[in-house]
Amino acid sequence: MQIAGVHGTDAQAVDAALTQAAHSMSTLDVNVGALRAAVAPLYVVRAVRAIARFPHALRIEVSEQLPVAILTVAAVKTAVAADGVVLGPALVSGSLPSVGGSIVPAPGHRVGGASLLGALAVLGAAPAPLAKHVERVFEGAKGLTVAMRNGLIVYFGNAGQPRAKWLSLARVLADSSSAGASYIDVRLPARPAAGFPAGVTPPDASAAATATATEPAGSTESTVASLAAVLAGETNTGTSSSTASEPAGASASSGSSTEPAASEQPGEATSQAPTEAAPGTSTTGG
Asked: What residue segments make up the domains of the chain, in order of their start?
Protein backbone atom coordinates (compact mmCIF):
# COMPACT_ATOMS: atom_id res chain seq x y z
CA MET A 1 0.00 0.00 0.00
CA GLN A 2 1.19 3.51 -0.83
CA ILE A 3 -0.09 6.76 0.71
CA ALA A 4 0.63 9.93 -1.24
CA GLY A 5 -0.01 13.64 -0.72
CA VAL A 6 0.60 13.83 3.03
CA HIS A 7 3.07 16.57 3.97
CA GLY A 8 1.79 18.49 6.99
CA THR A 9 2.53 18.24 10.68
CA ASP A 10 -0.25 15.64 11.00
CA ALA A 11 1.38 13.41 8.37
CA GLN A 12 2.21 10.60 10.79
CA ALA A 13 -1.32 10.56 12.24
CA VAL A 14 -2.88 10.56 8.76
CA ASP A 15 -0.64 7.71 7.61
CA ALA A 16 -1.44 5.68 10.72
CA ALA A 17 -5.21 6.19 10.44
CA LEU A 18 -5.33 5.25 6.77
CA THR A 19 -3.04 2.26 7.21
CA GLN A 20 -5.17 0.87 10.01
CA ALA A 21 -8.40 1.42 8.06
CA ALA A 22 -7.02 -0.21 4.91
CA HIS A 23 -5.50 -3.17 6.75
CA SER A 24 -8.59 -5.37 6.41
CA MET A 25 -9.41 -4.34 2.82
CA SER A 26 -8.48 -6.09 -0.40
CA THR A 27 -7.99 -4.62 -3.86
CA LEU A 28 -11.37 -6.09 -4.80
CA ASP A 29 -13.15 -4.52 -1.85
CA VAL A 30 -11.80 -1.02 -1.15
CA ASN A 31 -14.10 0.97 1.13
CA VAL A 32 -13.36 4.63 0.42
CA GLY A 33 -16.01 5.69 2.92
CA ALA A 34 -14.16 3.86 5.69
CA LEU A 35 -10.91 5.55 4.68
CA ARG A 36 -12.56 8.97 4.82
CA ALA A 37 -14.13 8.19 8.18
CA ALA A 38 -10.74 7.18 9.56
CA VAL A 39 -9.26 10.62 8.89
CA ALA A 40 -12.43 12.64 9.59
CA PRO A 41 -11.08 13.88 12.96
CA LEU A 42 -7.95 15.14 11.16
CA TYR A 43 -9.29 18.31 9.59
CA VAL A 44 -6.11 18.86 7.60
CA VAL A 45 -7.38 16.15 5.21
CA ARG A 46 -9.65 17.63 2.55
CA ALA A 47 -10.29 14.51 0.46
CA VAL A 48 -9.21 10.89 0.05
CA ARG A 49 -9.03 8.87 -3.16
CA ALA A 50 -8.18 5.18 -3.45
CA ILE A 51 -6.75 3.47 -6.54
CA ALA A 52 -6.62 -0.34 -6.43
CA ARG A 53 -4.47 -2.40 -8.80
CA PHE A 54 -5.03 -6.14 -8.83
CA PRO A 55 -3.75 -8.25 -7.23
CA HIS A 56 -2.22 -6.46 -4.22
CA ALA A 57 -1.45 -2.80 -4.99
CA LEU A 58 -3.43 -0.01 -3.32
CA ARG A 59 -2.58 3.67 -3.66
CA ILE A 60 -4.33 6.18 -1.39
CA GLU A 61 -4.10 9.79 -2.52
CA VAL A 62 -4.71 12.47 0.10
CA SER A 63 -5.60 16.10 -0.60
CA GLU A 64 -4.65 18.36 2.30
CA GLN A 65 -5.79 21.77 3.45
CA LEU A 66 -2.76 23.00 5.35
CA PRO A 67 -2.89 25.93 7.79
CA VAL A 68 -2.04 29.36 6.39
CA ALA A 69 -2.73 31.49 9.47
CA ILE A 70 -3.50 31.61 13.16
CA LEU A 71 -6.95 32.99 13.94
CA THR A 72 -6.74 34.89 17.20
CA VAL A 73 -9.83 35.99 19.13
CA ALA A 74 -9.12 37.29 22.64
CA ALA A 75 -6.87 34.60 24.14
CA VAL A 76 -8.09 31.81 21.84
CA LYS A 77 -5.89 30.72 18.94
CA THR A 78 -6.56 28.16 16.23
CA ALA A 79 -5.06 27.26 12.87
CA VAL A 80 -7.06 28.08 9.74
CA ALA A 81 -6.80 26.90 6.13
CA ALA A 82 -6.89 29.13 3.06
CA ASP A 83 -10.54 28.29 2.38
CA GLY A 84 -11.56 29.29 5.92
CA VAL A 85 -11.83 25.81 7.45
CA VAL A 86 -10.78 25.80 11.11
CA LEU A 87 -8.12 23.15 11.68
CA GLY A 88 -7.82 23.37 15.45
CA PRO A 89 -5.28 24.63 18.01
CA ALA A 90 -2.99 21.60 17.60
CA LEU A 91 -1.71 23.00 14.30
CA VAL A 92 -0.90 26.47 15.66
CA SER A 93 2.72 27.33 14.87
CA GLY A 94 4.87 30.38 15.52
CA SER A 95 5.83 30.42 11.85
CA LEU A 96 2.26 31.17 10.76
CA PRO A 97 0.98 34.74 10.33
CA SER A 98 -1.97 35.92 12.36
CA VAL A 99 -5.42 37.13 11.41
CA GLY A 100 -8.16 38.50 13.64
CA GLY A 101 -11.83 37.67 13.92
CA SER A 102 -14.84 37.97 16.17
CA ILE A 103 -15.54 34.30 16.90
CA VAL A 104 -13.65 31.01 16.69
CA PRO A 105 -15.76 28.29 15.04
CA ALA A 106 -15.28 24.68 16.07
CA PRO A 107 -12.64 22.68 14.16
CA GLY A 108 -13.97 21.50 10.83
CA HIS A 109 -16.28 24.48 10.48
CA ARG A 110 -15.65 27.51 8.29
CA VAL A 111 -15.01 31.05 9.48
CA GLY A 112 -17.29 33.87 8.37
CA GLY A 113 -16.78 37.44 7.26
CA ALA A 114 -15.67 38.70 3.86
CA SER A 115 -12.60 40.46 5.22
CA LEU A 116 -11.32 37.41 7.10
CA LEU A 117 -11.99 35.06 4.19
CA GLY A 118 -10.23 37.53 1.89
CA ALA A 119 -7.18 37.65 4.16
CA LEU A 120 -7.00 33.85 4.18
CA ALA A 121 -7.35 33.69 0.40
CA VAL A 122 -4.46 36.15 0.04
CA LEU A 123 -2.30 34.06 2.37
CA GLY A 124 -3.25 30.90 0.52
CA ALA A 125 -1.96 32.39 -2.73
CA ALA A 126 1.37 33.49 -1.25
CA PRO A 127 4.48 31.72 -2.60
CA ALA A 128 6.28 29.90 0.22
CA PRO A 129 9.44 32.09 0.06
CA LEU A 130 7.28 35.15 0.75
CA ALA A 131 4.64 33.53 2.98
CA LYS A 132 7.20 32.69 5.65
CA HIS A 133 8.00 36.40 6.04
CA VAL A 134 4.39 37.48 6.67
CA GLU A 135 3.58 38.45 10.25
CA ARG A 136 -0.11 39.29 9.99
CA VAL A 137 -2.91 40.37 7.66
CA PHE A 138 -5.56 42.87 8.70
CA GLU A 139 -8.16 45.28 7.31
CA GLY A 140 -6.66 48.77 7.36
CA ALA A 141 -7.32 52.19 5.88
CA LYS A 142 -6.27 50.90 2.44
CA GLY A 143 -8.09 47.60 2.61
CA LEU A 144 -6.39 44.25 3.15
CA THR A 145 -2.91 44.98 4.47
CA VAL A 146 -0.02 42.56 4.86
CA ALA A 147 2.55 43.29 7.57
CA MET A 148 5.90 41.58 6.95
CA ARG A 149 8.11 40.44 9.81
CA ASN A 150 10.76 43.04 8.99
CA GLY A 151 8.24 45.89 9.37
CA LEU A 152 7.44 46.40 5.69
CA ILE A 153 3.75 47.09 4.99
CA VAL A 154 2.13 45.82 1.78
CA TYR A 155 -1.25 47.14 0.65
CA PHE A 156 -3.32 44.50 -1.19
CA GLY A 157 -6.60 46.42 -1.04
CA ASN A 158 -8.81 43.38 -1.55
CA ALA A 159 -8.52 39.66 -2.22
CA GLY A 160 -8.84 40.04 -5.98
CA GLN A 161 -5.91 38.88 -8.15
CA PRO A 162 -3.87 37.63 -5.17
CA ARG A 163 -1.39 35.71 -7.31
CA ALA A 164 -0.75 38.75 -9.52
CA LYS A 165 -0.25 40.95 -6.44
CA TRP A 166 2.27 38.56 -4.89
CA LEU A 167 4.08 38.48 -8.24
CA SER A 168 4.10 42.27 -8.31
CA LEU A 169 5.52 42.34 -4.77
CA ALA A 170 8.19 39.79 -5.69
CA ARG A 171 9.30 41.94 -8.60
CA VAL A 172 9.50 44.96 -6.35
CA LEU A 173 11.53 43.05 -3.78
CA ALA A 174 13.85 41.78 -6.50
CA ASP A 175 14.95 45.32 -7.35
CA SER A 176 17.03 47.21 -4.77
CA SER A 177 16.32 50.68 -6.18
CA SER A 178 13.99 51.62 -3.34
CA ALA A 179 15.56 49.98 -0.29
CA GLY A 180 14.27 51.63 2.85
CA ALA A 181 10.67 51.93 1.68
CA SER A 182 8.12 51.82 4.46
CA TYR A 183 5.38 50.33 2.30
CA ILE A 184 4.66 48.80 -1.09
CA ASP A 185 1.27 49.28 -2.72
CA VAL A 186 0.22 46.43 -5.03
CA ARG A 187 -3.50 47.23 -5.16
CA LEU A 188 -2.96 47.71 -8.89
CA PRO A 189 -0.50 44.86 -9.53
CA ALA A 190 0.54 46.22 -12.93
CA ARG A 191 1.49 49.55 -11.31
CA PRO A 192 3.03 48.93 -7.87
CA ALA A 193 4.40 51.86 -5.89
CA ALA A 194 6.85 52.14 -3.01
CA GLY A 195 6.46 54.76 -0.28
CA PHE A 196 9.21 56.28 1.85
CA PRO A 197 9.03 57.94 5.26
CA ALA A 198 9.64 61.67 5.42
CA GLY A 199 13.36 62.38 5.34
CA VAL A 200 14.33 59.15 3.59
CA THR A 201 15.86 59.51 0.14
CA PRO A 202 15.19 56.60 -2.24
CA PRO A 203 18.38 55.12 -3.70
CA ASP A 204 19.35 56.34 -7.14
CA ALA A 205 17.95 53.91 -9.70
CA SER A 206 21.15 53.80 -11.79
CA ALA A 207 23.34 53.21 -8.75
CA ALA A 208 21.00 50.48 -7.56
CA ALA A 209 21.14 48.80 -10.94
CA THR A 210 24.96 48.76 -10.79
CA ALA A 211 24.91 47.37 -7.26
CA THR A 212 22.45 44.65 -8.22
CA ALA A 213 24.61 43.61 -11.14
CA THR A 214 27.54 42.97 -8.81
CA GLU A 215 25.60 41.22 -6.04
CA PRO A 216 26.57 37.64 -5.08
CA ALA A 217 24.37 35.04 -6.72
CA GLY A 218 23.28 33.69 -3.36
CA SER A 219 21.97 37.00 -2.01
CA THR A 220 18.41 37.53 -0.85
CA GLU A 221 17.79 39.88 -3.78
CA SER A 222 18.88 37.22 -6.28
CA THR A 223 16.70 34.65 -4.57
CA VAL A 224 13.63 36.87 -4.78
CA ALA A 225 14.51 37.78 -8.38
CA SER A 226 14.49 34.09 -9.22
CA LEU A 227 11.13 33.76 -7.48
CA ALA A 228 9.74 36.62 -9.54
CA ALA A 229 10.94 34.95 -12.73
CA VAL A 230 9.31 31.65 -11.76
CA LEU A 231 6.04 33.34 -10.82
CA ALA A 232 6.07 35.28 -14.08
CA GLY A 233 6.16 32.01 -15.95
CA GLU A 234 3.15 30.71 -14.00
CA THR A 235 0.99 33.84 -14.02
CA ASN A 236 -0.29 35.84 -16.98
CA THR A 237 -0.65 39.19 -15.27
CA GLY A 238 0.87 41.71 -17.62
CA THR A 239 2.74 43.17 -14.64
CA SER A 240 5.33 45.72 -15.70
CA SER A 241 8.74 46.43 -14.18
CA SER A 242 8.29 47.81 -10.71
CA THR A 243 9.87 49.70 -7.94
CA ALA A 244 11.69 47.92 -5.21
CA SER A 245 12.03 47.72 -1.51
CA GLU A 246 14.19 45.96 0.98
CA PRO A 247 13.79 42.18 0.65
CA ALA A 248 11.32 40.66 3.04
CA GLY A 249 14.00 38.69 4.82
CA ALA A 250 16.58 41.43 5.05
CA SER A 251 15.78 42.92 8.42
CA ALA A 252 18.24 40.67 10.20
CA SER A 253 21.13 41.49 7.90
CA SER A 254 20.59 45.09 6.89
CA GLY A 255 20.62 48.16 9.01
CA SER A 256 19.25 50.40 6.29
CA SER A 257 15.57 49.60 6.64
CA THR A 258 13.27 52.24 8.06
CA GLU A 259 10.58 51.14 10.49
CA PRO A 260 7.17 51.79 8.88
CA ALA A 261 3.85 51.94 10.62
CA ALA A 262 4.02 48.25 11.52
CA SER A 263 1.93 48.93 14.59
CA GLU A 264 -0.90 50.16 12.41
CA GLN A 265 -4.13 48.63 13.61
CA PRO A 266 -7.15 47.82 11.46
CA GLY A 267 -8.87 51.02 10.45
CA GLU A 268 -5.88 53.27 11.26
CA ALA A 269 -3.92 55.12 8.60
CA THR A 270 -0.15 55.40 8.58
CA SER A 271 0.97 58.28 10.76
CA GLN A 272 3.92 59.16 8.52
CA ALA A 273 3.69 61.23 5.36
CA PRO A 274 5.74 59.04 3.02
CA THR A 275 7.06 59.89 -0.38
CA GLU A 276 5.73 57.58 -3.07
CA ALA A 277 7.90 56.46 -5.94
CA ALA A 278 6.40 55.13 -9.12
CA PRO A 279 8.22 52.39 -11.08
CA GLY A 280 11.51 53.52 -12.52
CA THR A 281 11.74 56.79 -10.60
CA SER A 282 13.90 58.09 -7.78
CA THR A 283 12.14 60.50 -5.46
CA THR A 284 13.52 62.31 -2.47
CA GLY A 285 11.51 61.81 0.71
CA GLY A 286 10.49 64.70 2.83
From this structure: 2-64, 66-111, 125-277
**Cα 134 → chain centroid:** 7
DSSP code for 176: G
Tell me the one-letter amino acid at 142: K
DSSP string, 126-172: S-HHHHTTEEEEEEETTEEEEEETTS-EEEEESSSSHHHHHHHHHHH
Q: What is the spatial distance between Cα 277 and Cα 195, in angstroms, rounded to a whole number?
A: 6
Q: Alpha carbon of 86 to those of 48, 57, 66, 139, 221: distances in Å? A: 19, 34, 10, 20, 35
SS3 43: coil
Mean pLDDT of all residues belonging to the chain: 77
Please state, in angstroms and rounded to a whole number, the distance separating the CA atoms of residues 144 and 66. 22
Q: How far apart are CA 48 and CA 34, in angstroms?
A: 10
Q: What is the DSSP letter of 86?
A: E
Cα distance between residue 229 and residue 225, in whole Å? 6
Q: Distance of CA 228 to CAs 67, 82, 123, 129, 216, Å?
A: 24, 22, 17, 11, 17
pTM of the predicted model as reported, rounded to 2 decimal places: 0.69
pLDDT in tens, 128-185: 889 999 999 999 999 999 999 999 999 999 999 999 999 999 888 887 766 778 899 9
User: Cα 198 vs. chain centroid, distance in angstroms?
Assistant: 29
Give the whole-angstrom CA distance, residue 211 versus residue 176.
Answer: 8
Residue 38 near residue 10, CB atoms below 8 Å: no
- Report pLDDT digits (tens) over 52-96: 888 888 999 999 889 999 999 998 999 999 999 999 999 999 999
H or E element: which one contains 88? strand 86-88
